Amino acid sequence: MGRIEIRDVTRRFGATTALDGVDLVAEDGEFLVLLGPSGCGKSTLLRMIAGLDTPTTGRIVVDGEDVTDRAPGERDLAVVFQSYALYPHMTVRRNLAFPLLMDGFRWWHHVPFLGSALYRRERSDRGVAERVARAADVLGITELLDRHPRTLSGGQRQRVALGRALVRDPVAFLMDEPLSNLDAKLRAETRYEILALHRRTGRTVVYVTHDQVEAMTMGTRVVVLRDGAVQQQGPPAEIYGEPASVFVARFLGTPPMNIGPGEWDPAEGVSWWGGLLPALPEGTMPAAGELLVGVRAEDLVVAVDTGPAEEPGVRGTVELHEDIGHETLVAVTPLAADAKSGVRRARLFVRHHGEAPPVGAPVRVTVRDGGRITLFDPATELRLGATRGVRIPTSLGR
Amino acid sequence: MTVAQVAAPARRPARRAGGFGLALVAPTVLLLLLVQAYPLVEGLRLSFTQTALARPRAGSYVGLDNYAELLADPRLGKILWVTLVYTVASVLGSLVLGLVAAMVMNVGIRGRGLLRAILTVPWAAPGVATALVFIWMLDSQYGITNWALTRLPFVDSYQRWLNDPALAMPAVVAVTIWKVFPFAAIALLAALQAIPGELYEAAKVDRATALNRFRQVTMPGIAPTVLTLALFLTIWSFRRFELIWLLTGGGPVDATNTLMIDLYRESFRNRQLGYGSAIGVVGLVLSVAAAVVYFVVSRRLGRRYGGAG
């Protein structure tokens, strides 16, 4: 239980297309992260799974049952909203109990006196109280039960919202940027809480975020969306290491992947920003010609340029340091960038440990042994098939 | 403790500038004394006198005689009853109709802006003009109301809307609601729009039916506005004069003779300024009572919302 299928879903709002033929499966028990910049359709997708929005075409299937035309309440899914959406006039206890009470609500409970008396009896029901207490215990909000949402901090509200999702024991949790209203420290803590919740319940989680750190640390699988279409999906490490397109490569990772213009000449090798890169293994290269070369900051090494100009590596000047404690991020402007003006992001970021070359120093940047190079087609910006994150063989070295 | 320490230095210079400060607030205070306090005190004083309208300065002190006479007046019960019926009916009617109109506009139908503009017309229209138009519309022989109603099946007789003791009150209440409900609608629309949409979505996911969403999300969300509206509408209803006076003059057979109408009749028709003032004081007491109920309820509401009130 908890397998969610999205079959060829398209959603249009007037002339704009928010989602364009998305096919996706969240396997039972999976922590699926929908990642993308704002406006990519990830929230729309989540809302359609929840039933708060209806696809223009396509179906939503939960555990083999087509739920596309079912009301949100009939899907047995719980939603955690970005704003938490706690009922302001209810105590935490009643907020948590609300889904349970609504489960047992019958229309005659609206009848004055008799109906409301029956409803009150249900409210004091043991089973409800027990389930609320258990959920509160799991999330450590037992001492908040009698307070109103307005008197709680952001983190506490967040936990109450999780609790309200948890009490009903749904087949899946849908979370729409649940951490975006928290400060950085609390966000990191709550991340682990949500992960613990996922482990404890074993339920499917579909989690929407624009924060690539959340996607990397939380998801068992990440789906990168752009302009209403799936760009790439896979485990976080795969998305990070083998991005399918320039967009994905730049969207994940801080700093983003270094991508610059290059050329492949079978006689000489791959050049990047006018400097030669280490030779790649046989059979991994496409046809000769221009391409885009991408290398992660941690796969680059930077050293003060002493050798002759023909030596491999990109020559450039250190522009600035970003010291983040255990390492230094060195930004290098390639010399070739001046010639090729108009090229975006004419700057290479290198993760460096130890003493970094001083700002202004002439340096040479190369790919480290075992580092990964990704090649993209300059026209389509898609990864060139054979170069799924090709590693530089250690033996070849610099 | 901290607050006091922080506040203390700020307060001292203000006290030193006392004379100047007083001079600054004096015009406002004087104006309020003139237009609020003086009439109030004068009304109270008059209610303890026997004063003829023609010679307001020549009243004689009669103690509680006016009140004794008023309480002994067999008409008082009916006047209060009429006032109560008029107030409750017009307030409830305006709130319910206003809420319905606000909810329709909140759904986001096409032409909402136009609808809102049209809706403000009754509220903005002058009371006298409203009354005159409705007198014609409700006219027993030439009114459009009777004409339209007799087009319906099962209605074949003309009604004397403003002259039938059984129909005058419903007619006056209906005109009042027509005039007042737009105000309620606009205030309630603002309150409805302040309720976050995610609350409704959360309630949907939590399997709340439409009626439960109304009770659990909408009602708590608009409760403070409803309460404030109810207070204003109640006090306005207590005091409403021109509409009733022009439509029925308090008749027929005192069927629409509210406290305010009776006050006017006693003071300016029967020329008993002192007696009229006593009626006015009763009206004041009722208004204050309504305000007290409002504050008690809003305090309780505030507590339910988590100590915000």
List the helices and strands and how they pair.
The complex is a heterodimer of chains A (398) and B (309).
Chain A: E1 4-13, E2 16-26, E3 31-35, H1 42-50, E4 57-62, E5 65-66, E6 77-80, H2 92-103, H3 114-123, H4 126-139, H5 154-167, E7 172-176, H6 184-201, E8 204-209, H7 212-218, E9 221-226, E10 229-234, H8 236-241, H9 246-251, E11 258-265, E12 269-272, E13 275-276, E14 289-295, E15 300-304, E16 314-323, E17 328-334, H10 335-339, E18 348-352, E19 362-367, E20 372-376, E21 390-391
Parallel strand pairs in A: 3-8, 3-9, 6-7, 7-8
Antiparallel strand pairs in A: 1-2, 1-4, 4-5, 9-10, 11-12, 11-14, 12-13, 14-20, 15-19, 16-17, 16-19, 17-18, 20-21
Helix pairs in contact in A: 2-4, 2-5, 4-5, 5-6
Chain B: H1 2-16, H2 18-47, E1 49-50, E2 60-61, H3 65-72, H4 75-106, H5 112-124, H6 127-137, H7 144-151, H8 165-193, H9 197-205, H10 210-239, H11 242-247, H12 259-269, H13 273-304
Helix pairs in contact in B: 2-13, 3-13, 4-8, 4-10, 5-8, 8-10, 9-10, 10-13, 12-13
